[in-house]
Protein backbone atom coordinates (compact mmCIF):
# COMPACT_ATOMS: atom_id res chain seq x y z
CA UNK A 1 0.00 0.00 0.00
CA UNK A 2 1.10 3.55 -0.64
CA UNK A 3 1.78 5.65 2.45
CA UNK A 4 2.94 2.97 4.85
CA UNK A 5 6.61 2.89 5.78
CA UNK A 6 8.12 -0.33 6.95
CA UNK A 7 11.46 -0.80 8.71
CA UNK A 8 13.28 -1.33 5.41
CA UNK A 9 12.07 1.99 3.99
CA UNK A 10 12.92 3.88 7.18
CA UNK A 11 16.46 2.44 7.20
CA UNK A 12 16.85 3.35 3.54
CA UNK A 13 15.74 6.94 4.22
CA UNK A 14 18.16 7.23 7.15
CA UNK A 15 21.04 5.95 5.00
CA UNK A 16 20.23 8.48 2.25
CA UNK A 17 20.07 11.34 4.79
CA UNK A 18 23.37 10.20 6.29
CA UNK A 19 25.01 10.11 2.87
CA UNK A 20 23.62 13.50 1.82
CA UNK A 21 24.55 15.44 4.94
CA UNK A 22 27.51 13.47 6.21
CA UNK A 23 28.46 12.44 9.72
CA UNK A 24 29.97 15.85 10.56
CA UNK A 25 26.89 17.93 9.88
CA UNK A 26 24.26 15.75 11.57
CA UNK A 27 25.17 16.69 15.20
CA UNK A 28 25.22 20.38 14.26
CA UNK A 29 21.84 20.04 12.60
CA UNK A 30 20.39 18.31 15.66
CA UNK A 31 21.85 21.00 17.94
CA UNK A 32 20.38 23.83 15.87
CA UNK A 33 17.02 22.03 15.73
CA UNK A 34 17.03 21.80 19.54
CA UNK A 35 17.88 25.50 19.83
CA UNK A 36 15.06 26.37 17.45
CA UNK A 37 12.62 24.27 19.47
CA UNK A 38 13.67 26.04 22.70
CA UNK A 39 13.24 29.46 21.10
CA UNK A 40 9.83 28.51 19.71
CA UNK A 41 8.76 27.23 23.13
CA UNK A 42 9.88 30.42 24.90
CA UNK A 43 8.19 32.61 22.27
CA UNK A 44 4.95 30.67 22.66
CA UNK A 45 5.17 30.98 26.45
CA UNK A 46 5.81 34.74 26.15
CA UNK A 47 2.82 35.15 23.84
CA UNK A 48 0.64 33.18 26.24
CA UNK A 49 1.74 35.31 29.21
CA UNK A 50 1.22 38.45 27.15
CA UNK A 51 -2.43 37.56 26.64
CA UNK A 52 -2.99 37.48 30.41
CA UNK A 53 -1.21 40.77 31.15
CA UNK A 54 -2.23 42.96 28.22
CA UNK A 55 -3.40 45.94 30.32
CA UNK A 56 -1.25 49.06 29.92
CA UNK A 57 0.49 50.43 33.05
CA UNK A 58 -1.23 53.17 35.07
CA UNK A 59 0.14 56.73 34.69
CA UNK A 60 2.19 56.49 37.93
CA UNK A 61 3.58 53.00 37.28
CA UNK A 62 6.89 52.08 35.65
CA UNK A 63 6.71 50.52 32.18
CA UNK A 64 7.66 46.83 32.11
CA UNK A 65 11.32 45.98 31.64
CA UNK A 66 12.27 44.66 28.20
CA UNK A 67 12.57 40.87 28.22
CA UNK A 68 15.36 38.84 26.68
CA UNK A 69 14.82 35.40 25.19
CA UNK A 70 17.71 32.95 25.41
CA UNK A 71 18.03 29.73 23.46
CA UNK A 72 19.51 27.89 26.44
CA UNK A 73 20.24 28.83 30.05
CA UNK A 74 23.49 30.79 30.11
CA UNK A 75 23.65 31.10 26.33
CA UNK A 76 24.45 34.78 25.77
CA UNK A 77 25.47 34.45 22.13
CA UNK A 78 21.97 33.83 20.85
CA UNK A 79 20.14 36.02 23.39
CA UNK A 80 18.07 38.73 21.81
CA UNK A 81 15.65 41.36 23.12
CA UNK A 82 11.95 40.84 22.60
CA UNK A 83 10.13 43.62 20.81
CA UNK A 84 6.95 44.20 22.75
CA UNK A 85 3.97 45.22 20.63
CA UNK A 86 2.82 48.80 21.07
CA UNK A 87 -0.59 48.25 19.50
CA UNK A 88 -3.20 48.34 22.28
CA UNK A 89 -6.26 47.53 20.16
CA UNK A 90 -8.07 44.31 20.94
CA UNK A 91 -8.25 41.73 18.17
TrEMBL record:
Q: Which GO terms describe its biological process?
A: protein transport by the Tat complex
Q: Please name the InterPro entries in this protein's record.
A: TatA/B/E (IPR003369), TatA/E (IPR006312)
- UniProt subcellular location: Cell membrane
Keywords noted in UniProt:
Cell membrane, Membrane, Protein transport, Translocation, Transmembrane, Transmembrane helix, Transport
Q: Where are the transmembrane segments?
A: 6-23
Q: Keyword Protein transport: yes or no?
A: yes
Q: Which PANTHER family match?
A: SEC-INDEPENDENT PROTEIN TRANSLOCASE PROTEIN TATA
Subunit arrangement? Answer: The Tat system comprises two distinct complexes: a TatABC complex, containing multiple copies of TatA, TatB and TatC subunits, and a separate TatA complex, containing only TatA subunits. Substrates initially bind to the TatABC complex, which probably triggers association of the separate TatA complex to form the active translocon.
Q: Could you identify this protein by its name?
A: Sec-independent protein translocase protein TatA
